[in-house]
Amino acid sequence: MCGIAGLFDPVGLRPFDPALMRRINDVQSHRGPDSDGLHLEPGLALGHRRLSVIDLSTGDQPLFSEDGSIAIVFNGEIYNFQQLVPELRSLGLKFRTRSDTEVIVNAWRAWGPACVQRLRGMFAFALWDRHQQTLFLARDRLGVKPLHYAWLPDGSFVFGSELKTITSHPGFQRRIDPLAVEEYFSLGYVADPRCIYEGAHKLPSAHTLTLRRGGAARPEPQAYWDVRFTTDNPISAADAQAELRERLRESVRLRMIADVPLGAFLSGGVDSSAVVATMAGLSESPVHTCAIGFDDPRFNESDFAKMVADRYRTNHTLDVVGSDDFGLIDTLAWLYDEPFADSSAIPTYRVCQMARRHVTVALSGDGGDESFGGYRRYRLHLGEEAVRRRLPLGLRRPVFGPLGQIYPKADWAPRPLRAKTTFQALAMDSVEAYHHSMSHLRADQRSAL
Question: What is the mean pLDDT of residues 140-165?
Answer without folding.
Answer: 96
